[in-house]
Specification:
The chain is mainly beta and 167 residues long. It is built from three helices and 13 strands, in the order αβββββββββββββαα. The protein has helices at 2-12, 148-154, 159-164, and strands at residues 15-16, 22-28, 32-33, 46-47, 50-57, 62-67, 70-78, 81-86, 92-97, 108-111, 116-121, 127-135, 143-144. A hairpin with a 5-residue loop joins strand 1 and strand 2 (22-28).
Length: 167
């Protein structure tokens, strides 16, 4: 598995992501949405859309975080993942993303903006190559990564999953 992961990182020119895993932006639209045409929650303009490659491994999960925009996850290769989500109202739910439709996996899933979410590879000693598309386009100004203690204080009934998927 390690050789496959190293090959993917090298071939796709991925780098470490702050939330965990490895990524590279593959698309940022040239078109822009001006601040006056966006919700007040955004500061400045945003590109219409952005997209990344995202690689997770059994050892490198995506820690709980949130962004202001909707984010579409696309499955490409490897093990399925569990995408764990906590809505702004505190409801927890999980979605399997992968290619085995008979097992309830879906190859594409939309995480609504303002939802806390984390992802982990289901199969041990494996990896997952996925893509993420964000619209309006991603900006690190819209990215929020809280500490374990801060998230547990917000959602104490979800302490176990928060503790497992935060750094």
């Amino acid at each position: 598995m390690r050789k496959s992961v190293e090959n993917i990182i090298r071939a796709l020119k991925l780098k470490k992501h702050p939330e965990g895993g490895f990524f590279r932006e593959t698309y940022r639209s040239s078109g822009k949405i001006e601040k006056d045409n966006l919700d007040k929650k955004y500061s400045g303009f945003r590109n219409y859309s952005t997209s990344i490659y995202f690689l997770l491994t059994s050892e490198h999960f995506s820690a709980f975080h949130r962004i202001k925009q909707d984010e579409i996850w696309h499955f490409y290769k490897g093990s399925a993942i569990h995408l764990h989500m906590i809505s702004p109202q505190g409801q927890y739910y999980v979605q399997k993303i992968g290619s085995d439709l008979d097992q309830g996996e879906v190859p594409q899933y939309v995480v609504k903006g303002e939802t806390w979410f984390a992802a982990e590879v289901i199969e041990q000693n494996s990896y997952t190559l996925i893509g993420c598309t964000v619209s309006p386009g991603f900006s690190f100004e819209d990215f929020e990564l809280k500490s374990r203690n801060e998230l547990v204080a917000l959602y104490p009934r979800h302490e176990a999953i928060i503790c497992r998927l935060t750094n």
